[in-house]
C-alpha cells in the first residue's frame, strides 16, 4: 500500500511507474493490492530512482521521501522517452512513448532507447540514454547523438584529432567516420540507465 501512496504522490500512473522501474504493470498492481511482495531489489530501485525512503517502504517509519523531498520533485526529474527523433527536433519532439524518472536530471533533457552495440561496453543495447538537446559546445570525448545522412539517430563519441572531427564508436569492431553535411548533432548524452531486471 505504501508503494501505491508513493506512486500517487509522484503523480505517475501504474503504467508509467512500472515502466520506469523495468517491471510489468501487472506485477506492480499485485504489489499495490497486497497479492505480491516487493523484492529487496525493487525497494532499492524505488529508493534510488524516486528518492523514496527505504525504511518507510519497509515498515512505514520516517518520512516517505528522503530529505523531505516535495511531492512535486519528480516533475524536474522526468524525461520524455522518445520513440524516434524527428528532423524538426527539438522544436517538435515527436511521439513521446512515456516518461522516465531520473534523479538529479538537468532541466530540458530527453531520453531514447539505444539499439545496437556501436557504443558497447559504455552503452549497451536496450539502455536508456538521457540527453540534452544540442545547445552548447561539444568537447572531444563527449558522447553525442547525431542524425546520420539517412535521418537515423546514432550515438558516437565526438573526437578531434589533428584539427579533424571524427565520430567514433566505443566498440573497436566498428570504424570511426568523419561527419558530412548530412550529419546533424541532436544532443549530448548526460546519463545512461540500464533496465532493472526484477
UniProtKB/TrEMBL annotation:
**Superkingdom classification of source:** Bacteria
Sequence ranges assigned to domain HTH cro/C1-type in this UniProt record? 3-57
Q: What UniProt keywords are attached to this protein's entry?
A: DNA-binding, Transcription, Transcription regulation
Q: Does the keyword DNA-binding apply?
A: yes
Record's keyword annotation contains DNA-binding: yes
Q: Which residues are listed as membrane-spanning?
A: none
Name the record gives this protein: Cro/Cl family transcriptional regulator
Q: Which organism is it from?
A: Geoanaerobacter pelophilus
